[in-house]
Amino acid sequence: MSFPTYRGHLHYVCLGCGATFDIGELHYTCPTCSGVFVLQDLNFDQLKATPAAEWRRIFDARAASKIPALRGIFRFYELMAPVLEQGDILYLGEGNTPLVDSPPALRAELGLKTVYKNDGQNPSASFKDRGMACAFSFLNSLIRTKGWTEVLAICASTGDTSASAALYASYVGGAVKSAVILPAGKVTPQQLAQPLGSGAVVLEVPGVFDDCMKVVEHLADNYRVALLNSKNAWRILGQESYAFEVAQWYDWDMRGTCVFVPIGNAGNITAIMGGFLKLHALGIIESLPRIFGVQSHHADPVYRYYAAEAKDREYKPVTVTASVAQAAMIGNPVSFPRVRHFAEKYEQLGGTGSFQVIQVTEQQIMDSMIQANRHGHIACTQGGECLAGAKRARELGLVSAAETLVLDATAHHLKFIGFQEMYFENSFPAEFGVVPKPELANRPELIITQGDKDRLAEKDYVVQAADNVVARLGLAKK
Fold first, then answer.
1. Plot region of 304 (φ>0 → left; ψ -120 to 50 → alpha; else → beta)
2. What is d(CA 119, CA 130) in angstroms, rounded to the nearest whole number?
3. What pLDDT does 328 receive?
4. Does some domain include residue 19?
5. CA-to-CA distance for 397 and 48, rounded, in angstroms?
């Protein structure tokens, strides 16, 4: 198997004023109107000359490739960033994350056919690696062609973005230096440990993610830095691979499928819609899955926009309050213009209801995360948000038991283990509004005291401890 020969002609397109810009420079927002960009391939229609069945065969064959540049997200090379040379492409094991069916017991509880896509099984334990692999591959290309000797890779983050950016920057090394800006005290210890471990300069500012984002935006506007947040259109391209993988898993048949995605900075839901639209344009899939964005009532500007009648819609940022879905605790998502852009296209093809936004509570998010993980999943709080969204959609009559509901677990459960601990200990601060359900709480139990251990002979201690286990668990003798 050889590396693809197709090369696209990509350019930046501003969603605000329609201006276009060459990809030879780093652009994040339009210098004319400050709008956000999408990347478009002017040669895309050439891909339609290849029959849809042949594209399916090509992508399925590459799934077994041993060429590093085709093993991950770039097995869909022609659909993503087809301007990159093979030597510029990074592969750290990202992509190809599993879709895991919920067990029968959970499906019976829910009355729904749910499936988790575990993007926490990416290298840095979150979906951000899809976008970083693409963004850093493009940065590699710029460094090579322009002869840059130093460039700062920087991002604002609530945790996952910084972990991923720092990981890829440390792998590239050389001309690339790494810094991340975090909201002080708003990042879990596990997520803070990741950029520190990768050697990034970690800087904190008071406030929330939106405050950090303003700082990095100022830097990107005035200095030569590689901004790695979702304003970076190359990141969005990489994250389209999520849609390609879901479609490939179901043998390119999306009938009766719904995809639930948490909305944070709105880059991922943008990418997923964009990815499915590309597949549909080439006939690789014949129908679009329905897309449900999910937001907590503590950070819900996109939900509020779409909850209004179309004629009355007006986008307004919101002031966020504490949320367990920490990665989604964003009151002014930079990718909202992309959401609106792709949602319009999506509904034109898929019809009314093909794109919707669901609001859920913090209590529902935590209960759902615990419920999922008690049935063998490894969902993070954002994965809990998706399950809560699926249950809310069922309550509203928007989904049925006959459909397959793909839930996006954006990160590994262990990144947010502190919220589970607060749930089990009933120690959530009041602003979260979360009270644990006794049937879901779980704590370790001391089965025999230290005093008994000290008092009893070793043999008697073992027997006593075992008897206590038998009594606690109701074991029957052989």
1. alpha
2. 9
3. 78
4. no
5. 38
In 102-222, the DSSP E strands lie at 113-118, 151-156, 176-183, 201-205
pLDDT score of 190 more than 90: no
User: 360 with 466, same domain?
Assistant: no
Based on the fold, state whether residues 380 and 406 are members of the same structural domain.
Answer: yes
Phi-psi region at 444: left, alpha or beta (left = phi > 0; alpha = psi -120 to 50): beta
Residue 394 and residue 419 in one domain: yes
Burial (0-12, 13-18, 19+ Cβ within 10 Å), 377: buried
Alpha helices per DSSP H over 63-159 = 68-71, 104-110, 128-146
* Cβ burial 206-245 (10 Å sphere, 16+ → b, else e): eebbbebbeebbebbeeeebbbbbbbbbbbbbbbbbbbbb
Residue-wise pLDDT tens digits, 227-273: 998 889 999 999 999 999 999 999 999 999 999 999 988 999 999 99
Identify the CA nearest to 409 among candidates 191, 102, 63. 102
Q: Is residue 10 part of a domain?
A: no
Is residue 464 located within the same domain as residue 339? no
- 402 and 428 assigned to the same domain: yes
Name the β-bridge partners of 331: none
- The rounded distance, in Å, linking the Cα atoms of 226 and 147 is 15
Domain shared by 409 and 455, yes or no: no
**Total domains, the chain:** 2
Report if residue 150 sits inside a domain: no
Query: Tell me, what CATH number does 298's domain have?
Result: 3.40.50.1100
What are the tens digits of pLDDT across the range 431-460? Answer: 999 999 999 999 999 999 999 999 999 999
- Domain with 467, as residue range(s), is 445-478
Q: Report yes or no on 76 lying in a domain.
A: no
**Is the domain of 462 the same as that of 341?**
no
Instruction: Determine the Cα–Cα distance for residues 65 and 271; give it in Å rounded to an integer.
Output: 25
Strand ranges, E, within 188-311? 201-205, 225-227, 257-262, 290-296
The encoded tokens of residue 394 equal 């069922």
Same domain, 323 and 457: no
pLDDT at 217 over 80: yes
Structural contact between residues 359 and 391, judged by C-beta atoms closer than 8 angstroms: no
